[in-house]
Each structure stands twice: as structure tokens, then as C-alpha cells.
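Q: Can I see a sequence and its folded structure?
A: Here is a first one.
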Amino acid sequence: MLRILSLIAVVLVVAFIGFNLIDNSREAEVSASAVILDTRADSSGFARALDPYDWQFPRDFGAHPDFQTEWWYYTGNLQTADGRHFGFQFTIFRRAIDADAQISDSEWRTNQLYMAHFAISDVGGGRFLHEERYSRGGAGLAGAQVEPVYRVWLEDWAITGVNDDATLTRIQARAADFAVDFTLDQLKAPALQGVNGLSAKSAEPGNASYYYTLSRLAADGTITIDDETFTVTGYAWKDHEFSTSALGDDALGWDWFGLQFDDGRELMIGQIRLIDGGSDPYFGGLLINADGSTVYLPAASFTLTPLDTWASPHSGALYPAAWDVDIDLPSVGAGAEPLRFNVRTLLADQELHGGGVTYYEGAVALTGDVTGFGYMELTGYADSMTGRF
């Protein structure tokens, strides 16, 4: 998936950069704040997504520090035994400051910055709760690894492998008023997005990411809101991407969907919206069949049509709240008839605001030729993504 790309471009104000890149003792008291800056910074020295990639799992569940930007994204739709519905998002982002990691005796010295977004959509309770955190990649405060176990973490927010091949994982995170503790059981092999995992985002070579999806994870565990804990089950979705550059200079934002059908299939579909009102033809979608086989969907094979809108009281942005999706399956050899369905938000207010950039990330329901649930990400409606990645 695209993810909130500009959020990965986290650079800290001078005091914090200095604290990361010079040797400091544990006793040093340093205050810091975080800002999002224009990302058209020097990316020389980093690897770029240009050629086919040699995927190996669970190795590629871990970090890829040769690339400047990386994220581990989890969402899901879960319910209690009596049908109360929740959505969740848990994403950890990595951003390298520069390509030259200097050797130092200090555990505080690092060229890696991490950020995490954690959100709960309490559909039954009509609440959306969200929080974000930042940390350095030094002193054990944040990081990503596959040895001795798969683990991606930012302080006490963590994704941890439970077995040797990390097909069973655990997510634990606690914010001020809400928390989750889930186990996720991988039901399908990784689905490679784009062309064998090389997902192009524009015509320019290298404006791409390496991208795989775990499209169906059986989830069970607990969600806690205030002092009330709910036992929940359902399905989750994982995206993992790494790159050095992706969007073209004419990109305004994107509309992205990760959808799980009740018939056992999944769909990633999206469009990159351009400044001139068009869409980039180089980003498409992927249909994942019940047996795990996949069908690539070029941009020309589907249309996304907004049907309704929601006006944010926080940012003033006007977001599409419902969509008509038409997929020409005969054109890609994936069916005798086109596939048509509607996507609608389960809770109107699922906007992440108050951080470095404002965007929409929320649980959705499907009706029409297929039914099911999923997640929708909308950017460029409150803050333009132009030039940020």
C-alpha cells in the first residue's frame, strides 16, 4: 500500500538532530520537538527500487536500512461476541537521516528515526482515538529486527514474532486512554504488489517501492478503552514497504483501500491523484484469491467514483465517505463479469489530525457484488503531498 508517505520524512529540529548524531551520555538532559519538512532532501547513497527483488521470508519482515524510508502497517476489523465492531491501525515508520551511518561507541548515536501511529475506531461507541510517537533508533528505544525473533518497536509499542518463521505475531500498544493486545495468525503467503513486489508510483524509474502484503491475518485478543476491556476476534491486514523515492512531482495525494471480502478474497486498490485533477496510470491494484494466487490490476482496469463526502470539523477538509468501485475483471482474465461494489466508512470521523500532517485512515464496509470490511486511506485533502516524498 502507499501509506502516509510524507510522515516517514521525519526530520527533527537542530537540537534533536545534534542529540542523535553526536555522542551523549545518558545523563544529558535534552528537550526536542519534531517537525515535518519538505522531503526533497539529498537521498544520494541510498538504494532505490529499480529491479526485481529477491524476496526471502522471514528475512524481509525486518528492516532494510539501505533504503531511506520503510514502514510496517497493520489494520483490522474486529468484533466482540455480541457484535460490537472495532477497527484498529498500528503503523511503525523508519526514516534514515543520511546514508552514511557513522561508527560510534555511544549507544545513543544513530542515523535512524522512528515514528508510530496507533488508532482505534470504536464503531459501536462512536469514538475515534489516536496517538503518535517519535523516537530515535538508538539505545534500544526503537528498531526493527528478525534475529533472534522478528520484532519492530517504538518504546513499549511493539510487533513481536511468536514462532520461528513469524507467521504468528503479537501486537501490544498502550496509549493514555486505549490499548490493544492481539495475536495475528498468518493465513496466506505474502502477496507481492506491483510486478513481483516492485510497485511503481510514477513513470520515472526508481519512483517505486518494494511492497508485499499479508492480506489475511486471523486476529484475536483484547481492546481496552478507558477502564473497559473487550475480547475481540476478526481479520487484520499487514503492508510492508521500503523505498528511497516514490511519488512524482505532480502528485497531490492518494486514495488507497485494503479490503477483505467475505468470500475469502482480498483486494488492494488505489489511485494517485495529480495536481491537474487526473490520476497517475502507473499505480494499480492486486486481487488476492482465496487460494493465495494473485492477479495484478493495472490502473486502466478499474474506476473509483466518490458517492458521498464528510467535512472534518478538525481540519476543514472534505473527504469522500463512500465510493463506487468498478473492476473490469474480464480485461485481466480474472472473471467473466465485472466486479462492482460500494465502500462506505463505518464511522464518519476517522481523521488523524494534530500531528505533522492530517489524513484520513478508517474502517470501511463493503456492499454489492461482494461484502466484507477493510481500511481506507485518503491523503492530499487537508495537506498536499506535493514535494513531500
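Q: Show me another, different protein.
A: A second, unrelated one:
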Amino acid sequence: MTIHHHLDDATLVAYAAGTLDEAMSAVAASHLAWCAQCRAAVGVMEAAGGELLAGLDAMEISSDCRSRTFALLDQAIVHRFPSPVRGSDGLPRPLSRLMNGMAINDIPWRARAPGIAMHDIKLSQAAKGHLRLMRIAPGKAMPEHGHGGEEITMIISGAYHDKIGRFARGDVADLDEDIEHRPVVETDAPCICLVATEAPTRFKSVLARLVQPFVGI
């Protein structure tokens, strides 16, 4: 597998620091499972963060602060995922874990629009945004759109192209609200993507905006 599109540096820093939200972390971890280049970059960032912490002077803390910190840890939800190279059924292992080992051929897809089906992946109650798998039919062109916030899309199988380039297995489109594009799936196979979003998509056409509440993206 040759990966041409990688996670943005800001995303890698947030992942290394443990501050990336749950949905985005799931896509980032899935990409890292397949991408040696981004794994190496995260390793460097984590090492640099460790050196910075080691260089800080020790500070006295109150017993009340310690108690409140441990109480918060009991409520914390871990967003980090391990990044081994393979998972079940050709999926990255972080994604396999979230799907409880479900094979991709057994996913209960729900049709949302002609040529588009989705499967929502359950996150914790405290999670923000959404995480879903999307299957788009061969040759299908998505309406031109922008994003209401950050969005990370990882290609699991198949490929699409837009004005940014061609995205195939393992590639990620790490986009913000300034990007508008019109993905077109290649004709030989459906494109299955793992998508994390902060906010609903901003479609440009009136028709797409009218059907958006029923499609769910």
C-alpha cells in the first residue's frame, strides 16, 4: 500500500498530546495503523513532549488538588487507540475494535441517498461530533460541499478524486471549513470511507441542502 495523503501536522500534534477528540482520534489511529510515516512523526512528537515535561521544575500541589485530579481521572474517557499494522478483515485494528470485530461484509448498511449508504459507529456519551462508515457507489459524484468544522476522511477501500487529488486505500483527507470540493468515486469499485466530522456538511446546491436532514450528513 502506497499512501500519498497524510494527516495534517496540527492533527498529529493533537493526537500525540492526547487532545484530539474521540471521533477524530479513531480516524487518526486507523490511519497510523497503516502509515509508517505518520507513526514515526507521532513518535518524534511524543518524545519531544516527554523531554519538555522532564525539564519542568517540580511544584508542590495541595491535597485538595490531588483529590480532585484523581476524581476527574475516574470520569475520563480514553480517546487513544493502539496502532498495530493490521486488523481483522483487512481493516485497521483501531476500527476493528470499535466495530467489535465485525467484518466489513457484515456491516448493516443503511441507504441514505441513491448510491450512498452509511453505518454510524457508536462513541461514548461524552463524545462530540460523529464517526461513521460511508459506502459510495462506483462512479458516484458527491454534491459540491464545504464543512462546518474539521473533518477527517480515511479511505478503507476503493478510491475517489477531487480537485485536491486522488485518494485511495489508506489515504486521509484532513480538511477544515475553508475547503470546498466535489469527490467523484472511481468506476471500478465502491469507495468505503471512515469519516469523522465536527459539524454537518455545508452543501452548495439548494436541492442538496433540502434533502440533507434526511440523508444525515
